[in-house]
Amino acid sequence: MADPIHQFQIVNLFPVIKIGNHDIAFTNSAAFMVLAAGGITAFLLASTARRSLVPGRLQSVAELSYEFVANTINSTAGKEGMKFFPFVFSLFMFILVANLVGLIPYTFTITSHIIVTAALALSVFFTVLVYGFWKNGLHFFNLFVPKGIPIYILPLIVFIEVLSFLSRPISHSVRLFANMLAGHITLKVFASFITLLGGLGIAGMAGAVLPLALVVALTALELLVAFLQAYVFAILTCIYLNDAIHPGH
Amino acid sequence: MATTTAHTEQPGHKAPFPPFNGETFASQLFWLVLCFVFLFVMMWKVALPRIGAIVDTRQKKIDDDLGAAEALKKQSDDAIAAYEKALADARNRAQAIANETRDKQAAAAEAQRKSLEDQLNTRLAGAEKTIAATKQAAMGNVRVIAADTAKAIVERLIGSAPDDQAVSAAVADALKR
Question: Is A188 inside a domain boundary?
Fold first, then answer.
């Protein structure tokens, strides 16, 4: 049976620079990051190059993604949240494209690595912290003190609120990472059942139909998960940013 | 996916679970920061303003067109109202002219009738006067004829002409009865 973990292996393609005692090489992961960032930029710029009043198909896709993210921010963080539109849009598109590209066989899924999702989640966490204190000063601490709570359980509530705030980047990053990792391992395991059973002769080939059907269904599911996890990451980002904008509630 | 490319294997060394292999963290972070910052800047400075401008331009165009349609509709409504007002005015004026003309003609006809009547009355009066005069004259003649006839009858009966004055008195007396 093929190693289902192998697909997550980082492969050094060629060395680039050395920072401290870390050799920074151009890896398969880096290649897909460049592909995602470059692909999104190229697509959005090329599809909107004509600035048509009546959009073509590609321009429609670009506008659709724009309005989708804009509406998500507007509905969760309000008008003020639009300040973070480029940030949330970049996060959503980067994760979405990384997830979708990762579903293509032989590709590498950037978001199946905890360090990547953690870095993205921490960038949100620190954006919330920095903006929250910059905009609200010490009122930002109101976030941890819900209104209308009896004084005798307030310390407990504040403790829980602080704990949940601090654990946000963990759940934020692990959710995406675990979904991607688990999905790809599942796909790989069921796909290897097909070859395993197929090697057992006619009866095995007939039996291999079941895992094949499962892989087809799982692929559809994983497409949904790829979109959904990008959306969940984006909407959680909006909700966290909303706390920085309006810490009162 | 079962193929294993040779250069990925590190012989004699069991690699840890790749997502938790700390050796790759630095390079992943390095490329992630590079790519994400690039993407962020491109979205922030180029792509999103451009798409936003397209969407806003379209919204503005739609609003403008709707506004223009609204203005045109108002214009046509005004034109219809003006037309109806003009029509009503014209109708009123025609009514007034017709009334005026009718009154004028009725008055003229009345005047004409009156003058004709006056004329006829005058002529009637004249005629009556003539008839009265003729009657007067005739009555005078009757008296003379009656007197002459009576004188002649009396003359034949008695053979002598009666006194004129007596005959006249007798005729007058007879006519009075």
Answer: yes
